[in-house]
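Per-record layout

source: Thermococcus chitonophagus
name: Ribbon-helix-helix protein CopG domain-containing protein
length: 67
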Amino acid sequence: MLRIIALRKRMSLKEVMREALKRYVELESEKLEDDIKKDPIWKIIGKGKLDPHASQDETWGLVEWPE
């Protein structure tokens, strides 16, 4: 089927496959984001902001003990 699409659009098979995969990933990521937003766990723990580089910080995960 992809080969037929490639011939009709006068594109290479590689380009058609890339476009198909891109559309598939976009569709699935939208579904996943919707499912995540509907997940009841967010009502329990809330939504926080996460620093994507937090684990690279040397003090990450260290407990500060009061003196």
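summary: The radius of gyration is 22 Å. The mean pLDDT is 81.
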